[in-house]
Amino acid sequence: MSIWEYANPRKFLATTEPFLPWVFGAAGLCLGVGLIWGFFFTPDDYRQGSTVKIIYLHVPAAMMAINAWIMMLVASLIWLIRRHHVSALAARAAAPVGIVMTLIALFTGAVWGQPMWGTWWAWDPRLTSFLILFLFYLGYVALWEAIADPDTAADLTSVLCMVGSVFAVLSRYAVNFWNQGLHQGASLSLDREENVSDVYWQPLVICMTGFGLLFLALVLQRTGTEIRLRRAQALRARTERAQA
Amino acid sequence: MMPDLGRYAGPVLAAYGFSLVMLIALVWASARRARRVARELALVEQGRDG
């Protein structure tokens, strides 16, 4: 059995749909446990006070905003190389989810930054590259909507996705490239000195898992929707041609 | 039950409120669109078969 069998739309739907309620359920459970644990049962940080509780939303959302774009890049490359329509539709399906994740990361970052840094926004390398990534997301969705021919739209959005990947990578590593700006380095690190304190680590990992599962569930569901929409359009076009 | 968020209650509650509203809206909109498209496809297939 090959992984490319799942590029068949029928096979994709038949395989993924039975799992969807379970993935949504697992996402809800992880998010519920992680957020309740983090919000109600973790102490304030000695420097940041209660604003440290924003970490359970900001870090997972930022992580998924970047990972969503990387997933779209992989799906776009599969489309460009192997011309599997499901991969192009999966990339399209992931974009609105990525937009929401990016918005959450930007908003929670701003409300966290104001009391900690004294400003809502700074033209810091990580923040700036994240904002550009958000604009790329909007451009990606707009490009899909603007082009009538689905294959041409998939080609052009795939190229846009490759260009935007520079900013997805920069969003994650900008702090390492340029040792300047207000934003600190990674919250999770193998280096115990850099890693977030143990008391915050466990609920944070649960929240990150929850965001990851929610992303997976939404992308599978939305890809199924795109497949059905494409089929409905194709059937309608076929009927119109037959009647003409 | 509600933890004492001190002087940062505003930013913390705003972050949680905004994020939860966005996530719930995303799930709701995705489910609504999925149902609408499934219905649309069923109608097209029905018209084609019938």
Please give a structural write-up:
The complex is a heterodimer of chains A (244) and B (50). By secondary structure, chain A is mainly α. Chain A has seven helices and no strands. Chain A has one domain: Four Helix Bundle (Hemerythrin (Met), subunit A). Chain B has 50 residues and is an all-alpha fold. Chain B has one domain. Chain B has one helix and no strands. Chain B is rod-shaped and about 65 Å long. At the A-B interface, helix 2, helix 3, helix 4 and helix 7 of A face helix 1 of B.
Shape of chain B: rod-shaped
How are helices and strands ordered from N to C of chain A?
Answer: HHHHHHH
Share of residues in strands of chain A: under 5%
Major β-sheet annotation of chain B: none
**What is the total domain count of chain B?**
1
Q: Can you give the helix content of chain A as a percent range?
A: over 70%
Detail the topology: elements first, then pairings.
The complex is a heterodimer of chains A (244) and B (50).
Chain A: H1 9-16, H2 20-41, H3 55-82, H4 85-117, H5 125-146, H6 150-177, H7 198-243
Helix pairs in contact in A: 1-7, 2-7, 3-4, 3-6, 3-7, 4-5, 4-7, 5-6
Chain B: H1 9-49
Brief overview, please?
The complex is a heterodimer of chains A (244) and B (50). Chain A has 244 residues and is mainly α. Chain A has helices at 9-16, 20-41, 55-82, 85-117, 125-146, 150-177, 198-243.
Supply database-style keywords.
heterodimer; A: mainly alpha; Four Helix Bundle (Hemerythrin (Met), subunit A); B: mainly alpha; 1 helix; 82% helix
